[in-house]
Amino acid sequence: MNLDQLKVFLTVSELGSFQKAAQANYVSQRAISQQMKRLEDELGVKLFIRGKNRVQLTSAGNFFKERSQAILRMVSDTSQNIMRFDQLERHNLKIGYFSPFDALLLKRLIFDLANEIDFIVVEEGIEHVITDVLMNDLDCAIVMDDYGFNQNFSAMGLGTQALHTDRMVIGVSERLPFSDTITIDQLKNQPIIYYSNEESTYLKKAFTASLGTKLPSLSIQRVDSFEQMQMKVALGQALSFYPRQLISIYDQPDSHIRYLPLKDAMHQEFSFNLLYRNDNLNPALKQLIRHAQQSKKPTDEQFIKPV
Questions:
Q1: Which fold has domain 3-88?
Q2: Both ends of the chain: CA-CA distance in Å?
């Protein structure tokens, strides 16, 4: 006897017909008849009174119907409870990021929790991840803020947890004759590129705003490949801007790129924050926020290397 037999038996008892039960299960009437005959043989009793066009339950059949319903309810309840217990032990957390740099922070943040939480991680443009957090399509995201302008996420009903503070530097090819710093005026002599895998102007607006009001005319364009960006910068075909400490980890020793501070720029400090809705009750999110609060250390101890 198995659960499939019990389900077929209940279908026959409700419909009063082997043929109708066969149609409901997309099998032949002969298959249903044989299955019920095997069930009767196994139990050693007659469950059906077989008429010409209809079958009825015997007294034993009615008793077995009640027990079959109880067994299936118990199995269903048990399965649901087991799933609930499993969900209590492991939770899903959907988290977004927008660049290789916040990916470094994300890996560090979630590594210790990887055995407790099932992470679903996606890379999107920064406007996209912010919208997805607002729409509850993501539980949280790592975003860059307070660079050029402040997003005022609290006014959107969003909370933030600081993960890392940094300062922007300009990547230039070793071929180009720059000194140890680069001026705002020198930026106009080269195209400036930035990476985003989706259409996005967030970094362009932030970088422009960070330079202040006395701004020369600049050519700032998006590229959709980080490797392409690094190649163009290394060959001297463009400049780009990077977080000083994180690029020191990410960059390769033979990249042929120098990372120079920007002289006389108004505001080149910024932060990477964990962004989430204040009304998100996902226990895994609460656990991640607590972990971020407890593991946050002075930035220089974590990342700083000579550049």
A1: Arc Repressor Mutant, subunit A (1.10.10)
A2: 72
Q: Provide Rg for the chain, Cα atoms.
A: 32
| pLDDT values of the chain reduced to their tens digit, one per residue, 307 residues | 788 899 999 999 999 999 999 998 888 999 999 999 999 999 999 999 998 888 999 999 999 999 998 898 888 877 776 665 555 555 789 999 999 999 999 999 998 887 778 889 999 999 999 999 999 999 999 999 999 888 889 999 999 999 999 999 999 999 998 889 998 888 888 999 999 988 899 999 999 988 886 666 889 999 999 999 999 999 999 999 999 999 999 888 888 999 999 987 767 899 999 999 999 999 999 999 999 998 765 444 444 444 3
Global pTM?
Answer: 0.66
Q: Detail the DSSP E strand segments found in the chain.
A: 48-50, 55-57, 91-97, 117-123, 140-145, 158-173, 182-183, 192-195, 220-223, 239-243, 257-263, 269-277
Correct CATH for 91-303 of 1.25.40.10, 3.50.50.60, 3.40.50.300, 3.40.190.290 = 3.40.190.290
Euclidean distance between CA atoms 167 and 250, whole angstroms: 15
CB 286 within 8 Å of CB 140: no
How many Cα neighbours within 13 Å face the side chain of 219?
Answer: 8
DSSP state of 138: S
- Which amino acid would we find at residue 16? G
Residue-range domain boundaries for the chain: 3-88, 91-303
Cβ atoms 223, 194 nearer than 8 A: yes
